[in-house]
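Entry type: protein chain
Record version: 2
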Amino acid sequence: MNKPICAMSHQTGKSIPPVDFEHAHCYRLCAVAETDPSSAPEWLRVGVAAKVTRISARTLRYYERAGLLHTPRTAIGQRRYGPQELLALAFIRRLRETGMPIRVIRSYADAVRAGSGRERGLPLLLAHREQVFHDLARRQAHLDAIDRKITAYRDGARTSRETP
């Protein structure tokens, strides 16, 4: 019987490092036996998935309720997160961190699950990409203004009007 993966090595007490999301599909998520990794399960319970993804268990459950992610369940209803779910979470995290609203991520996820990612999902990603570019340009303008202020202070020049 496969046991869920533990985020701590029971033999050494050392934490398992966070999942490298870009290569999660290459990992055999392992904790059953440090002596026999081939017998390890390839899924995580919600609490352990939260630890390795650095997304809270509460948020993982919310993502499922919101329709962003469908996680397989055990016979007794426990969520199971495997490499595919971890990669999906990595992409959801990127979308959230770049400001995509939950409702748009849900629409994207629905399109992908329905097999129409290219037709319905691509326009959503393209629109979000434009927004991210706009946000980057705005942030770059702010950074340029900060750099000008730093340069002025380093050069010993006082601005005509001191501002915080």
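Comment: The domain at 1-97 is CATH 1.10.1660.10 (Multidrug-efflux Transporter Regulator; Chain: A; Domain 2).
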